[in-house]
Amino acid sequence: MSKAIVRRKVKAEENLELLPAFEPEVDLVETRDYLRLLADMPGFDREDMDVLVGDDSIIIRGERKAEGIYQQSEEFRILERKMGKVYREIPITTKIRADGIQLYYEDGVLVVHMPKEEVIH
């Protein structure tokens, strides 16, 4: 498994506006102890992705670049693979422990594992 890409809180003054070319498909699962987000991000380099965890949402943003994939002499006959910027904001209603977040990127899938804060009754 890979090491964490980015883990930090979203700052209120941070400009998060992007004009995404597409949104990655995600699954969000929950247990009593954690939330786990899985995002399809095939063809991305780790350094071209950013994961932002806030109090009420998780933001995935990045860019899949075409540089180095296609030659100038090539002419497109079919062009279905999406390139460009991605942005996806997923709302969360559960308090999570920011210090326990783990991120992995393997086989084109970004996994964000977020332990929940313990609720004392």
UniProtKB/TrEMBL annotation:
SUPFAM superfamilies linked? HSP20-like chaperones
Q: Where is the SHSP domain?
A: 17-121
Per UniProt, what is one Pfam family of this protein?
HSP20
Task: Extract the signal peptide range.
Answer: none
Q: Which domain of life is it from?
A: Bacteria
Spell out the InterPro entries in the cross-references. A-crystallin/Hsp20_dom, HSP20-like_chaperone, Small_HSP
Provide the coiled-coil residue spans: none
The entry assigns this protein to a family as follows: Belongs to the small heat shock protein (HSP20) family.
Its recorded name reads HSP20 family protein
